[in-house]
Design goal:
Helix content: 55-70%
Strand content: 5-15%
Oligomer: single chain
Radius of gyration: 43 Å
Number of strands: 4
Order of helices and strands: HHHHHHHHHHEEEHEHH
Strand order of the largest sheet: 3-2-1-4
């Protein structure tokens, strides 16, 4: 089991941040065996597909090279032009194979690990110049793995080569008796099929190496419990800092809430443990009364003090105060189940205002048993 430098076991799965940071550093799963197999297969297939055209073009170059006229031989400029023409023909003939090899060599690494460009990989690492580090790498588990893979590749290629050459022995002997052009084309085909079978043999090595590289990359990214906790602190913030932020947010919210209390139409209390501030303004399109402020104990006391200071009506209705406190959030409308009870309270408050202004008679006392649905009642 992998252990960190602190001695803790790396038992935790890597986080997304860990994976993202590793990818930015260029640390991702790569398989050289997969790249080798892909390039070898691509080259063999390209040689089989374009081998005839390549052989015929090269034979044409050879024919031109061995049928020079006397004028071309003695003219230095003609020789240069002839050499340039032969070079163009050779490049044109080999171009399809080179294009296939280029595409395969570019796509194969992307197939495992995706496209990745990291500037950190271009930076020089002077630690690699340390002889002790080099000796340590020579005798590491990675070096042993690479040695075993090299031996396995040698054995596989040797066995495949022996089988292929044994099967093509007669064909190779027949090449000596064939016409030149046919012999060259036949030779290209033999080389192409031999390379294809050898690449197919290397598929066994790649089939083992790819899962191994994925496992090694995942194992390297695994984290200790302490690393996970440290990363969480760095990304989410330390608990004491987050607690302080939440405290400041609560204080700011309370200040805004207290500033809205003077605008309330009524304060409904428990009378001591709960206090809620309501306002109903139909001129602004409010469908129902809004809860401007609420609180318990000390906050409830502060709401009552501000209400007394600004002459906001205070009414005692323990059941209604508890129901509004537990069912409604700040700056939200009260639930429909409390419409009737709150309507009676607001009607009583508006009647008191009219009476105090000399425009009406004294209202009857508010009924203590206001209609509150059972699902909205709270005993405490």
């Amino acid at each position: 089991m992998a252990e960190s430098e602190s001695g803790q076991d790396k038992t935790e799965e890597p986080t997304e941040k860990k994976k993202r940071d590793a990818r930015e550093k260029g640390e991702t799963a790569r398989s050289k065996e997969l790249n080798t197999v892909a390039v070898t297969l691509g080259g063999a297939i390209a040689l089989l597909v374009f081998g005839g055209f390549l052989a015929q073009t090269l034979m044409e170059v050879m024919r031109m090279s061995f049928t020079l006229s006397r004028e071309v031989v003695v003219d230095e400029r003609s020789m240069g032009i002839f050499l340039l023409s032969a070079g163009k023909m050779a490049i044109w003939a080999i171009q399809p194979v080179l294009v296939v090899l280029f595409v395969v060599s570019f796509v194969a690494p992307i197939a495992l690990g995706g496209f990745l460009f990291s500037g950190s990989l271009l930076q020089p690492k002077f630690s690699r110049m340390n002889p002790l580090s080099g000796i340590k790498r020579m005798f590491s588990m990675h070096a042993l793995t690479e040695l075993l893979k090299a031996i396995a590749k040698f054995v596989v290629i040797l066995l495949v080569a022996v089988v292929v050459l044994s099967n093509d022995r007669q064909a190779l002997l027949d090449i000596a008796n064939e016409p030149l052009e046919q012999a060259i084309i036949h030779s290209v085909q033999v080389v192409g099929w031999s390379a294809l079978w050898m690449a197919a043999g290397l598929l066994l090595i790649a089939a083992v190496d790819v899962p191994f590289q994925l496992f090694q990359a995942h194992k390297k990214l695994k984290m200790t419990k302490q690393e996970v906790r440290d990363e969480f602190k760095d990304s989410e913030g330390k608990p004491e800092v987050k607690q302080r932020i939440r405290q400041l947010q609560r204080e700011m919210s309370q200040r805004r809430m207290m500033a809205a209390v003077p605008d309330a139409d009524v304060i409904i209390t428990n009378p001591t443990h709960y206090a809620v501030a309501l306002k109903y303004d139909p001129e602004k399109g409010a469908g129902a009364p809004l809860l401007l402020a609420k609180g318990t104990d000390f906050i409830a006391l502060k709401i009552r003090e501000i209400a007394v200071e600004h002459k906001v009506q205070i009414l005692e209705s323990p059941a209604l105060a508890r129901a509004i406190y537990h069912s409604t959030e700040i700056e939200q409308e009260i639930p429909a189940g409390l419409y009737l009870a709150v309507a009676q309270v607001l009607a009583y408050v508006f009647q008191i205002r009219q009476y105090r202004s000399g425009r009406g008679k004294a209202p009857e006392p508010l009924k203590p048993d206001l209609p509150i649905p059972p699902d909205l009642r709270r005993d405490s």
